[in-house]
Amino acid sequence: MSNTYKSAGVDKEEGYKTVDKIKKAVGETHNSNVLNHLGSFGAFYEIGGYKNPVLVSGTDGVGTKLKVALDTKKYDSIGVDCFAMCANDILCHGAKPLFFLDYLACGKLDSEIAAEIVLGMVEACKDNNCALIGGETAEMPGMYQPGDYDVAGFCVGIVEKDQIIDGSNIKAGNKIIALPSSGFHSNGFSLVRKVFPNFEEEFEGKPLYETLLVPTRLYFKDIHRVLEEVKVEGIAHITGGGLYENVPRIIPEGLCASIDGSKIRIPSIMLELEKRGGVTREEMHGTFNMGVGMVIVVDADHAEKVLHLLDDAYEIGEITEGAEKINLSL
Hints:
It is found in: Cytoplasm. It holds the Pfam family AIRS. This protein has helices spanning 12-27, 65-72, 78-91, 111-127, 189-195, 208-212, 220-227, 242-246, 268-277, 281-285, 303-309, and strands at residues 53-61, 96-106, 131-139, 149-160, 175-180, 202-203, 206-207, 232-237, 255-260, 292-298, 314-321, 326-329. It is an alpha+beta fold. It folds into 2 domains: 5-160, CATH 3.30.1330.10; 174-328, Phosphoribosyl-aminoimidazole Synthetase, Chain A, domain 2.
C-alpha cells in the first residue's frame, strides 16, 4: 500500500468540511471594505473615511483555558475568548477593530469542533463590527495529540493619529475607573486547573466548568460609548499579571496609579480559588484580573460622566506623584 497524506495523519477532507461549515457565517461578518472572500491567498481590506489613519494590531491566544473546554467538550465560548483577548488590547489605544484572522492547530482535525470554535469568533466579530477575513487550520500529528487544539488570533484596528490613546497625557489627580471582568477571562488557567482539577464539581448550583468557561468580556461598545462623550487619558486591558503588570504600562514616569484594593469587587470564584489554593492576595492580583477587566483613566471632572455612561463601572483610585508606577493597597 502506498503512503498518502491521510495515512500520515492529515485528513484534507476534514479541512474542507470545516470550511463548508463556517463559510456562510464568516461571510456575514464582511462589509463593503472586504474585497475578496475565503479561499484567496491573502485577504483584502480597503480603508477609507480617515484623514490620517494609523493601524493598530494585536495578537493573542486562549492559553490553557482550552484544556477546560476540551475536557468538558464545550467549545462555543473559546472563539469569543480568542477574539476578545486581541480586540480588547487594541481598544486601549482608541482603535476600532477592522478585521480579524485566526490560527487553529490540532493533532487530528474534527470539523465539528473546529467549526464551533470559529463560529464563536464569528459572533464576537459581529458584536464588534469587525470582519473575519481569513485564517489557517493546521493539522499537525506528532506535534499535537489527537483531541488537542491550540487557538490564536490576530486583530487589526484603526484610529486617527491625533486620537491615539497612549497614557502620555495622564496627570496627577486623574481618576482610575474599573470596568468589571466576566470572570478569569483567559489568564491564569494553569493555576486555576491546579486548584480546581475537577471541572464537573458543583459551584454555586451549577457545574464549575460553566463558571470557568464564561467568555472574556468584549469592551468595544463600552469603550467607544465613553470615547464619544469624554476625553480619555489612558486605558489598560487587565490580562496576565493583573493590575500590577498592566496598569504601569500606561503610567508616565514620575506618576503612580494609587489603587484602593478594598474597592475592588472580587468575583466569588476567585475568592474560592484564593481560599482553597492557599494563594496570597498579592499573588492573586499578580496572576488574575480579580474582577477588573479594563481600567480607564480620566480627568476628575469627567469621572461621574463615565460612571453614568457605564452602569457597572466604579472608581478604584487616582493618579498621584511617585516613583513607583502602581501602589495597590491590599
